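Weekly structure sync, notes
Attendees: PL (lead), two postdocs, one rotation student
Agenda item 3: pending single-chain targets
PL asked that the sequence for the first pending target be pasted directly into the notes so everyone works from the same version. It is reproduced below exactly as submitted, 100 residues in total.
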Amino acid sequence: MTLEEADEDYTTKSADASRMGKAAEHLVAAFCILATRGMLNVSTALVDDEGVDLVFHRRNSTATLAVQVKARMSDSKRVRSEGFVTFVRAQTSTPGRHSI
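Predicted structure, written out during the meeting:
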């Protein structure tokens, strides 16, 4: 299988997928903190067994928002042509009580 073919197969994960996913999580967290000028704090879990990557909480408030970050690192023809489709497994995404 060529690199191009592997990139086209959405089920194929590279050895760096976890590293890139964690970098995307940190990027989202940093952007949200900076965009709110520090009004949001963010926490991460040591173990991700509930599909929650980041938990945001506003300073001086008890309200929280649990977030799962999904990232795709690719320059394949499918992504460049804006024909990208994703699938989320039910095991990794369970709606919370505030889900729409």
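Discussion points:
- DSSP finds three helices and three strands in the chain.
- Strands lie at 40-44, 54-58, 64-67.
Action: rotation student to compare against the earlier draft before next sync.
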